[in-house]
């Protein structure tokens, strides 16, 4: 669920793109050499290592919650602001493990899904069901960049004002999640039409307003029930805490959560080039519409943590654990060289990517 669902898109009858021309990558054929090399050179890197996942997630969560506590308890502004920054970065990194949960085999890291939901997903009101079964559609060969892709908007072809709106609306996400879990989900248990609406429209971490989620079934439906129950109890507890501790602690926590959501939205803004207007794309075309920000970009681990600085490579190897992506990138770069398809998805940093996207919305590439 994202607040940017108010943005009109070429996927909606309400508005058209800034230009009617299709994206420039839809007709790119697959680079068979690249696809073969990506698989063959990385066969030994596919095991998710619990000794990396667990400490990384736990330390990130501890820093995040410690930052929130410090921002609430410290009255000296510089100390409180420093704690808030630590809180934003820690919670942001911990939250992004939801991306890993959608790709790793459910038996690869025993207990990790439960532990992450208990410590991060439910406290942040974004349990893993909000991404599981959704993000994999983004990687589907025939869905990427189309109206059926929940995580794609042709932002490069849209109006210039959509970019700041896309970013700023992320600030509303924590409040929206609080209302969803504390009010809408409980009401939905007694009002079936509302329950169906909440599930279809505001139960997925998606950015495509045309996306409608199908009802959960089987074991997944049972998981959704327990995760929704936990999130609703926690959301109601947060609201009730105002009567015991006043409004200030909750407001500070929401501001920090909004900061993490804003940072994630900025990362999302540059995760792709967003140049496809609904056509089916080859795997290579999807790769070239995605972004790597490899070293020496120094700040990338902060705004694109948990391996997301290698987002284009991730689209070639979706099941590759985040801790293996740097080595996979090194091997592919050394084997293929810097003048072919693989190198074309690498960019120097955040600001050049934002500038490129802004130019695209104004008619230039």
What is the ordering of alpha helices and beta strands?
HHHHHHHHHHHHHHHH
Name the structural class.
Answer: mainly alpha
Rg result:
20 Å
Number of strands: 0
Domains (count): 1
> What is the share of helical residues?
40-55%
Task: Report the biggest beta sheet as strand number plus sense, adding barrel if it closes.
Answer: none
Q: Count of DSSP helices?
A: 16
Which regions contain 5 or more consecutive residues with pLDDT less than 50? Answer: 1-22
Query: What oligomerization state is this entry in?
Result: single chain
Global mean pLDDT: 91
| Beta-strand residue fraction | under 5%
Domain Fatty acid desaturase: 77-335
Transmembrane segments: 51-73, 79-99, 111-131, 161-182, 231-257
Keywords: Membrane, Transmembrane, Transmembrane helix
Protein name: DesA-family fatty acid desaturase
Describe, in plain words, how this protein is organized in 3D.
With 365 residues, the chain is mainly α. The chain has one domain. The protein is built from 16 helices and no strands. It has helices at 32-40, 50-73, 77-95, 97-101, 112-121, 135-138, 162-168, 173-188, 192-202, 218-245, 248-269, 283-288, 300-303, 311-316, 325-336, 350-361. The longest helix is centred in the middle third of the chain and has 28 residues, at 218-245.
